[in-house]
TrEMBL record:
A UniProt-annotated Pfam family: GFO_IDH_MocA_C3
GO molecular function annotation: nucleotide binding; oxidoreductase activity
Organism taxonomic ancestry: Bacteria, Bacillati, Actinomycetota, Actinomycetes, Streptosporangiales
Signal sequence region: none
Keywords in alphabetical order: Oxidoreductase
Protein name in the entry: Putative dehydrogenase
InterPro entries in UniProt: Gfo/Idh/MocA-like_OxRdtase_N (IPR000683), Gfo/Idh/MocA_oxidrdct_glycsds (IPR050463), GFO_IDH_MocA-like_dom (IPR055170), NAD(P)-bd_dom_sf (IPR036291)
Boundaries of every GFO/IDH/MocA-like oxidoreductase domain copy: 132-266
Amino acid sequence: MGQPLTVGIVGCGAIAAQYLRTIGRLPQVRLVAVADLDPERARATARPYPGVEALGVAELIADPRIQVVLNLTVPAAHAEIALRAIAAGKDVYCEKPLAATSQDARRVLEAAREAGVRVGCAPDTVLGTGTQTARAAIDDGLIGRPVAATATMMTPGHERWHPNPDFYYAPGGGPLLDMGPYYVSSLVTMLGPVSTVIGAAGRTRAKRTIGSGPRQGEEIPVTVDTHVTGVLVHESGALSTLVMSFDAVATQAPNIEVHGEQGSLVVPDPNHFDGPVLLTRLGEDAARELPVSAGYTEAGRGVGLIDFLSDREPRAGGTLAFHVLDVMESLLASAHAGRSVDVESTCERPATVTLSNPATRGQGGVA
């Protein structure tokens, strides 16, 4: 199988723990070093893993042992860290979104093309058995020609549980840019790219109160839309209705439904890798659960790194991530302009994932 992929993590915040668990289970990937603006946090992150070093950010990016820089910084820093890694000749895998703006994301992709390196980006949840089994059902014609989908995410807001939720309510945040990548990436994976969007948006209040941690009770400003809804017109002609909200208490709506001329699918939460896919065929009285037929089993955040071992663009790749970001920005632009907006970018649907367990392949793991 050759040598494992060597990775360095920049950004040791809350999400890093999930990536560390996954990397520790992937024999194809070896963690070399971690870095953070807070050196003590980097040292604490590295401590449980013998052989993993805590380095400065510049030192990690320049380290010749590292093939891929795993960029887990806050969205506002995604482009800066990615561009620095690309300039050092490294492949880059970013936490979502690819950048805080599509303009910055375009700079990242252009720099990567010029440097001959690759860019990947979360969410790689679309590589799990949930979205992949649903996609296989669509590709196999089980619902006939797809005509519509709905995608719904409604919550009171992350400040109720996150001790430092400021970035959720600053540019680059909000329910659409925070949670939308999971939903839009899944919709594009199943139904193809989006050509036009029609949106509406609003916000309920100008401040939010932190509900946990040492800053509990502190108010933070809200500078982004906290309820976004709209219609995505796919190039195929299918219409997806999207609702993303930090303003609602709860919902009983399925996370995603896909409707075709001959059947309908209930697709599991795209923020997770697995879950049941339910099919109701025309003329049937009840939904039935489909057998798992595609995707990575027992996957976790970071499984998309495996694709850097091949020569193709990662399936959780920069082109897909840029299109998803472009769709979301276009939806916000449509909401503010009060008219439909054409999406300038496009992408190919990523290749399907053969049903497999990535933890049983190859050699390597956490150093």
